[in-house]
Write a structure and sequence with these properties.
Blueprint: H1 2-23, H2 29-39, H3 45-55, H4 64-79, H5 85-92, H6 104-125, H7 132-155, H8 162-186, H9 220-227, E1 236-238, H10 249-255, E2 263-267, E3 270-273, E4 283-286, E5 293-296, E6 317-319, E7 324-327, E8 330-332, E9 338-340, E10 344-348, E11 351-354, E12 356-361, E13 364-368, E14 371-374, E15 381-386, E16 396-400, E17 403-406, H11 408-411, E18 419-424, E19 430-434, E20 437-438, H12 457-460, E21 462-466, E22 484-486, H13 489-492
Helix pairs in contact: 1-3, 2-3, 3-4, 4-6, 4-8, 5-6, 5-8, 6-7, 7-8
Length: 518
Amino acid sequence: MIMIMMRMVEIFLMFWALMGICALGVTNPQIRHIVEEDCSLTRYPSICVQTLNMAGLSSSSSGYTDIISVLLNKTISESKLPNSTHSTILTSQLGVQSSAQPSTGEYCETLMNLSEKRLQQSLTALNNKNKVEDIQTWLSAALTFQEACKDSAEEGQVVPNDVVRSDIAKKMSYLYELSSNALALTNRIQTTPFDTKSRGLSDQNYKDESSPDFPKWISRKDRKLLQATTTVNADVVVAQDGSGNYKTVSEAIEAAPSSGGRFVIHVKSGVYKEKIKTNKDGITLIGDGKDSSVIVWSDSVAGGITMPATATFTLALYIASDRSALYRCSIAGYQDTLYALALRQFYRECDISGTVDFIFGNAAAVFQNCELALRRPRGANVILAHGRSDPGQNTGFSVQNCRITASAEFESVKHSFKSYLGRPWKSYSRAVVMQSNIDEAISPKGWEEWPGSGSSVLSTLYFAEYANVGPGAATGQRVNWPGFHLIGVSDASKFTVANLIGGNSWLPSTKVVFNSGL
C-alpha cells in the first residue's frame, strides 16, 4: 500500500510538472511529445521534467536537440567547481593528506574537469548529425568520471567526515542523474527524423582494407609510427646515458606543446623509474621493444582512485583519454594493473599481466591479439572488472583473438587457485571474450560474482563468450546467470573494433579474421 501511494504521489507531481511546462509556453507538439514521452523513458524522469520546466522552453524551439541542450547546459552549470556547492567541500573540508597519494578532493577536481570537458564537447557537437556517436561516447565518459568521484568519497579511507562524504556523494549523484538523462535522450536521436544518416550496431559496411590492423580514426601517419620496426623520426629522444634530448620521459612530455599535432618521443633502452602523468593530446611514445624500454614505479594507493572492496593496489597504467592506441606494449602488475577508465581504447599485440581485476574501468576497449597472463595471486585471479553503471553507456571490454594464459611463475601452481575471466564491478558491467585461446587455469564456471552485489546484478550485467578455443574454453559448466550468454555471429559482431570502440559505428570498421567484423 505504501509503495502504491508513493507511486501515485510521483505520478501526481509529474503531472503538475508537465502542466508547468505547458504553462511556460511549450506549445510545439513535437517538443511536448518529447518532454512527456522521452522524459518518462529516462532513468530519472522527475529530474528531467523539472530541469525542462525551469528552463522555460518556448514554441520557437526546434525540437529534440533543444531538449538535450537544456539538459547539458544544466549539467555543465552544476559541474563548474568555482560556483558549485562541492567546491568548498573539496578544497577546504577534506583536510591535509599525505603527499604520497592524491586526496579525494584533488582526484574529484580532476575528474570534474574531465567531465566538464566532455560535456562541453557534447554541447558543441549537438547540432552536428554526424557527431551523435561521439556525443554518446563523451556523455558515457562524463557519467564515469562523476561516479568515480562519488566512489572515491564513499569507499576511500581519506574522507573521515561522514557529512563531507555524504555531501560529495549527493552532489555527484545529482550530476550523474542529469548526465544520464542527457545520454538517454541522445541515444534516441538515431530513431527520430532528426537523424536519418546514423549507422546501426549491425552495419558492417565500413572497411579500411588498406590497413586492416587499426581503426580508421588512427591516421595513416600514426599507423606508420605504430608499425615502424626501424628508427623513426622522433621530435625528441629520451636516453638515460645523456645521448638524447632528455634523460627522463616526464621531461620530454613536459616539453611537448599543450595542443597541436602529433609529438613523437623515442624512449631508448633502459629502465626509467618515474611516475608519468599528462593531460596533453597527441603524445606518442616509441620504445626499443617490450623488454627494452621499461617504465616502472611503485605507488600503492589506499584512497583517491578507489576500487570498492579493495584495500590497496598499484596501477601500472591509467587511461582516461579518447582514442588511445597501444601497440606491442607490455603492461605488468598484480592487482588492478590497467585502469581503462573511460572513452575509446584499442590494444593490439600487447602483453598484460596481473592477478585481481587486472583490467578494470568503464572504457569501450578492444584487446586484440593480446596476451593476458595470470600471475600468482594471494587468493583468486580475475582478469576483467568492467564498471558500466548506466544501461545507456556505450562501454564494454572486448577480448578478441587473444591468448589467456598462466605466467611462468603461476604455471606450476595454477590448479591450486581459482581464476576467472571477469566479474561485474558495476550493475551493467559488460565484457565479451571471443575467438580467444583460454588456458585451463580458468575455472570451469568462467565468471565470478562481485561480493555483496546482490542477485539483481546477475540479470543486468552482460557477459558473453563466442568461438573460443583451448582447454579452458569449454562452456558446459559456465555460470547460468541471466546476464551470461553464449552468443553467435550477430551479437559477437557488436563487440568488434567497428562497433564497440566505434560505438554504433562512430568509427569505420577494421578488418578482422571472419566476415561481418569477425
